[in-house]
Design a protein that fits this description.
Blueprint lengths: L3 E9 L4 E10 L7 E9 L6 E5 L2 H4 L1 E8 L17 E3 L2 E4 L1 E2 L7 E2 L3 E7 L4 E8 L6 H14 L2
Antiparallel strand pairs: 1-2, 2-3, 4-5, 5-11, 6-7, 7-10, 8-9, 10-11
Length: 150
């Protein structure tokens, strides 16, 4: 018999939806990950370019990059960030979020990184069920998108 712990994490669907995913993670390495998506809501229209790689269900990780030629502060998943984050190069990253009406807390499976200005914004949403999401990988993707905005 395996013991499981219930965790909540944020995930982003390929169809542009944000969802709260409840996952049962095994306490032992031999268990199987089981998850169920609940409370799926459409992501707000951001007039932005959205690129998603990986899927939580298959790859156990995903990275979404949102880029726009305007300020996205407080919009979309960037509105989930509940602190000022920590610097990673010219970007900032945080795992402290409030999703909907849930209490503010650190979500170890989620990382949001961002760089914003009045003329352009890029943010990333990384979810990884197997290890802490990589700030280095997130900011590298963010920087590529930032440069492509000119």
């Amino acid at each position: 018999m395996h013991r499981y712990r219930l965790i909540a994490l944020a995930a982003v669907g390929l169809a542009g939806t944000a969802a709260l995913v409840w996952a049962l993670l095994p306490d032992s390495a031999s268990g199987t990950v089981r998850s169920r998506t609940i409370d799926a809501v459409p992501a707000p229209s951001l007039d932005a370019t959205v690129t998603t790689t990986g899927t939580v269900a298959v790859d156990h990780h995903t990275l979404r990059v949102v880029a726009a030629r305007r300020d996205l502060t407080g919009q979309g998943e960037l509105g989930w960030v509940a602190d000022s984050g920590y610097p990673v190069g010219d970007a900032r990253c945080s795992q402290t979020v409030r999703i909907g009406t849930t209490p503010v807390r650190v979500r170890r499976t989620l990382l949001i990184c961002w760089r914003t200005s009045a003329q352009r914004s890029v943010y990333t949403v990384a979810v990884d069920l197997d290890r802490p999401p990589s700030a280095t990988d997130s900011v590298a993707a963010l920087n590529r998108a930032w440069m492509s905005l000119g």
